[in-house]
Amino acid sequence: MLPLNQPDTAEPGPDFRHVDTWIFDLDNTLYRADSNLFAQIDQRMTDYIARHLSVTVEAAWQLQHSYYREYGSTLSGLIRLNNVDPETFLAYVHDIDLSPLTPDEALIAAIDRLPGRRFVFTNGCRHHAKRVLDRLGLSEAVTEIWDIRTLDFTPKPQAEAYHRVITTGAFEPKSAAMFEDMARNLMPAYALGMTTVWINNGSEWSHQGPEYPLVARRHIHHEIDDLAEFLHAIRI
Ligand SMILES: [Mg+2]
Question: Distance from the CA of 103 to the CA of which of 32, 131, 142, 151 falls in 20 to 30 A?
């Protein structure tokens, strides 16, 4: 407790008092990238493509990453060009071991204090998102999950995905903040007037993929490395 005559000189936290809609990516955003969960999903995508299209693992990996770059997600390319059934693909790639995830008490408390509604906005599937939120102890904290079906299989970072969630959630973009580990997924959010927060986990992919070096950061309002710590520090 400071004496009354001594002003508090501590730096005020970043100002989020205009925000009542909190939008979180799921994978590598609500849990740490070094839990390597996404590596399991990545591996299963490669396996699925190799088996389904009868190509080598190397060819499958190339295709997987070129679709990701071109269409925003691997699935989007597979639907357009290879007539893959999305439900079968989603069930297969998300059938992973979640035991590295444990309840993150700091993050639970940080998200609980946020005023307004909290959403998960993912290119993955709802079933996977629910399992992950359960493991993290965040199921109660999240108002709604927007998954790839909500997006009608048009993934981030395509602008249509953002327009769809704005309609679904019926919110004003200027009163929303979006949290993401993939920097490129924040570009449309910024363009629409949302406050953007990039969780820089140091991976090549978080920097928009190896082929897209992160040259311009104008679309990033805040760059952070610890989501719970940041959410505790902001002014709300
Ligand atoms: Mg992510």
Answer: 151
Using the mean position of ligand 1's atoms as its centre, give its distance from the Cα of residue 222 in Å. 16
Using the mean position of ligand 1's atoms as its centre, give its distance from the Cα of residue 148 in Å.
Answer: 13
| Domains of the chain in sequence order | 21-33+100-233 (3.40.50.1000), 39-93 (1.10.150.450)
Residues with CB under 5 A from ligand 1 (ion): 25, 27-28, 181
The pTM (predicted TM-score) of the whole model is: 0.89
Rounded Cα distance, 236 and 233, in Å: 9
